[in-house]
């Protein structure tokens, strides 16, 4: 399994852009292998993200390990604060 970060390269929301970048920066800094999946390039990816999150309206960034949903940005931040990132990512 591998960590997947669902994001969008096309967003009018500065907040979403900042959240996405923070997730990618933290994973890179901690040398955690991950795959970034741009949902704006393929509607199937957006559908998969929403299916895994069990929420038809969820927005990126969303984080999974394989096909197992880990959580959203807020849960990611909480895991960092609690020093539980690896547990959160199901590594």
Automatic annotation (TrEMBL):
Identify one Gene Ontology CC term for this UniProt entry.
cytoplasm
Q: Which Pfam families match?
A: SH3BGR
Name the protein family: Belongs to the SH3BGR family.
Q: Which residues form the signal peptide?
A: none
Q: What is this protein called?
A: SH3 domain-binding glutamic acid-rich-like protein
> What InterPro entries does UniProt report for this protein, alphabetically?
Glut_rich_SH3-bd (IPR006993), SH3BGR (IPR051033), Thioredoxin-like_sf (IPR036249)
């Amino acid at each position: 399994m591998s960590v997947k970060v669902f994001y969008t390269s096309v967003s009018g929301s500065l907040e979403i852009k900042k959240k996405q970048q923070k997730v990618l920066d933290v994973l890179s800094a901690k040398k955690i292998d991950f795959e970034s999946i741009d949902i704006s390039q393929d509607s199937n990816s957006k559908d998969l993200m929403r299916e895994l999150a069990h929420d038809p309206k969820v927005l990126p960034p969303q984080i999974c390990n394989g096909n197992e949903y880990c959580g959203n940005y807020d849960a990611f931040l909480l895991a960092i604060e609690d020093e539980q990132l690896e547990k959160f990512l199901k590594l």
